Amino acid sequence: MNGNTVLEIQGLSGGYSLNRPVLHNISFQVKPGEMVGLIGLNGAGKSTTMKHILGLMNPQKGEIRVQGKKREEDSEAYHGSLAFVPESPLLYEEMTVREHLEFTARAYGVARTDYEERANRLAQIFRMQDKMDSLSTHLSKGMRQKVMIMCAFVARPSLYIIDEPFLGLDPLGIRSLLDFMVELKEGGTSILLSSHILSTIENYCDRFIVLHQGSVIAQGTLQDIAAQAGTSGAGLEEMFYTLVQGRD
Amino acid sequence: MNLAQLRSERRSRFWGKEVLPYLGYVIQSGVAVLLLFLLIAFSAWYTSLVQHIPAGLPIRWIMLILLVPLTVNSSFRTYLQPADTVFLLPQESRMNHYFNASWISGVVYKLLGLALLFLISWPLYVRSDEAPKSCGLFLVVLMALKLVSSYGCWKELRMVSRRAAMSYRILRYVIIALAVGAWLWQPVGRSLIFIVLIAVTYFVALRVPAKHLVAWERLIAQEKTHSGRVLMMLGWFVNVPGRQQRIYARKWLSWAGNRIPWKPGAAYRYLLMKSFVRSDILGIVLRAGILGALLVWWTRGGMLGSGIYLFFVFLAGVQLSSLLRYHSESFWLHVYPIPPGSRRTNAIGLAFQIQLLFAFLIWLPLLGAIGEKPGAVLITLAGGIVLSLLFRFFAGRKKTADDDDE
C-alpha cells in the first residue's frame, strides 16, 4: 500500500448479488490534494463504487482503504475521514438548515467555534443566510442540494465523495461549489467527483477514471485519457464518446 | 383507468402487506395482554360506577366531553402517493370515482366507533340525568352531526386557502360542540330546531371559500400522516420499519437540544431531541400529560388516583418507546462517524429522562392530598419512578433488528 494515498481501491468486485457482480476488479487511488473525476454512462457502476467506499455495500473481492485503514479495522476513524454529497438530497424533514449543519459538526467532532465560523461562511457562499432557520421541507430542490453540500463542507475530512453535485443547482451555486472545491483541494483535501457534465469537470479535475459496465476502461490525466482513446486535441466529452463507443 | 379498483388495490396492499403481517406479533406481545387487562379492569370499575352513581355527577358535561371529540373527528384515507400528481392528474375530473370509497369508509367506521362509545356511556347517562333523551333519537342526532362534520372536513381539505381551511375547522368544532351542548341541555324540540338552523347556516358558509377540484398536495400529505400513525401504533407492540410522520415546526421549542454536550457520542441525542420536539409523539405525550394531570387531580387522595397516575406514566412509556425506533433506516447514521453503540444508549437515555419528567409533572396534582395521606402520595411517586426504570431496563434488554451495536 502507498502511504501517501487518501483512498486506495484494490481489485474491487461487488454488487447486490454474488452471482451477478456489478463491479469487476476495480483499482484506483486518490492522493492528497487531488480532484479525481469518476465518469461513466448510467449504470456504469459509479454510484455502486461510491456505496462500497461509504461502507453501505461490502466488497465481494478486493479491499478499500481510506487513510490507510479498512472500515472493519476502525469504523469510526474510517467514516471520520470522509464526507459524502449524494446525488439526491437526503435531509431530515424535522430539522432546519442550521440544525443539519450542527448535527454534522457534532458527529464529526468539529469544534464549536470552527463550526460557527464555517457555517456562517458556507451560508454566505451558497446564499442561504435567510434560510438557515427554515425546515428542510420548506426548501426548493436546489436549496436542499446546497444543504447537502454545506453539511459535507462543514466537516473537514481528508476525502470527499461527491456524486453528481450539480443537479438542481443554479449557475451561481455551481460556480460557488467549484470554487470551494478548488479551495479545499489547494488545502490538501482529496475529492472523488462523479458527474455527467464533462465539459465542466474537465477543467477542474486532475485525473479521470472512466468506468464502463463495471470496469475501469481508462484512467489518468486528460493527456493519458486522450492517449488511451486515441484522440488528441479533443475535449473530454469526445474522448469519453470514443472510449465507450462500440463497447456494448 | 378504473380508479375505484386502483384505490381498492392500494387499500388491500397497505392493510394486507404493511399491517396484517404484524398483527400476530401484536396479539403475542405483552403490551397487548396488559391493554386487555386494563380493559377488564375498566369494565369492572365502570360496572361498579353505574351501580353506585355518586350524587350530583355532572353527567351532561361528561357526555359533552366524551361525545364532542368523536363527533368532530373526521379524516379520510385516500392511499394517494406523491407520484399521483403526475400519473393521476390527467384523471382529475374523474377522481370522484376514486374518492367515493374513501368517503364511505372514512364515515362508516367512525360512525360505528361513535355509536359504540355512545352505547357504552348510555347506562351512565340514563341513570344520572334528570331528564334523559330517548336512546334512539340521541343516536340519530349524533350520527347526523357526525355526517355534518365529515362533510365539512372533506370540504376543508379542498379549500385553496390554508387559513380558510383552518378557520372552517375551528368553526366546525364550535358548531358541533354547540349542537351537542344544545341537545344535552335543551328540550328536544327547541334543540332540534337549533341544530337544523346551525347546520343549514354551516352548509351555506361552506360554499363560500374557493376550492380545488382535487387538493393533491394536501391529500398526499394527509395520507402520509395517517399511514405513519397506523405504523406508529403498530410500533408500540412490534418493530416495524420507520415511516416519516407529520412534522410540526414548533418554533417555540427550537432551543430544545442545543445544550446537549458537543461531542460525537451525543450527536445522535441531538438529532433525536430535534425529531422528538417536532413529532406527533410530543403532541400525544403533552395531551396525555394534561388529561392525566386533570384526572389525577380529580381523583387525588384515593387508590384510584394512584392507579390513574401509574396508567398515564405507563402510557407515556409506551409512546416514548417509539423513540427507540426513530431513524432506524437513516442513511446518514451509516455514513457519519457516530461512535458504535451511542445510538441505542442515547435513545434509551432520552426516553427515560422524558418519562421521568412526565412522571414528576403529573404527580404534582397529588400534592393536593399530601396533608391527608403523605405516605400514599410519596409511594405513588416512587411507583412512577420504578415504572420509568422498568421501561429503561426492558428497552436496554430488547434487541432490535436494526441495532447498530451488533
Task: Provide a descriptive summary of the structure in words.
The complex is a heterodimer of chains A (248) and B (406). Chain A has 2 domains: 172 residues, P-loop containing nucleotide triphosphate hydrolases (Rossmann fold, 3-Layer(aba) Sandwich), CATH 3.40.50.300; 66 residues, no CATH class. Chain A is built from 9 helices and 9 strands. Chain A is globular, with a radius of gyration of 18 Å. Chain A has 248 residues and is α/β, with parallel strands linked by helices. Chain A is 37% helix and 22% strand. The mean pLDDT of chain A is 92. Chain B is mainly α and 406 residues long. Chain B contains 15 helices and no strands. In chain B, helix 1 crosses helix 5, helix 6 packs antiparallel against helix 7 and helix 7 packs antiparallel against helix 8. Chain B is globular, with a radius of gyration of 24 Å. The termini of chain B are far apart. The chains are: A alpha/beta (248), B mainly alpha (406).
Features:
heterodimer, A: 248 residues, alpha/beta, Rossmann fold, 6-stranded mixed sheet, B: mainly alpha, 15 helices, 70% helix
Topology diagram in text:
The complex is a heterodimer of chains A (248) and B (406).
Chain A: E1 7-14, E2 23-30, E3 35-40, H1 46-54, E4 61-66, H2 75-80, E5 82-85, H3 97-107, H4 112-125, H5 141-154, E6 159-163, H6 171-186, E7 190-194, H7 198-201, E8 207-212, E9 215-220, H8 222-229, H9 236-244
Parallel strand pairs in A: 3-7, 3-8, 5-6, 6-7
Antiparallel strand pairs in A: 1-2, 1-4, 8-9
Helix pairs in contact in A: 3-5, 8-9
Chain B: H1 3-28, H2 30-51, H3 59-72, H4 84-87, H5 95-128, H6 135-158, H7 162-185, H8 188-206, H9 216-235, H10 267-277, H11 280-298, H12 303-320, H13 332-335, H14 342-363, H15 374-397
Helix pairs in contact in B: 1-5, 1-9, 3-5, 3-6, 3-7, 5-6, 6-7, 6-8, 7-8, 10-14, 11-12, 11-14, 12-14, 12-15, 14-15
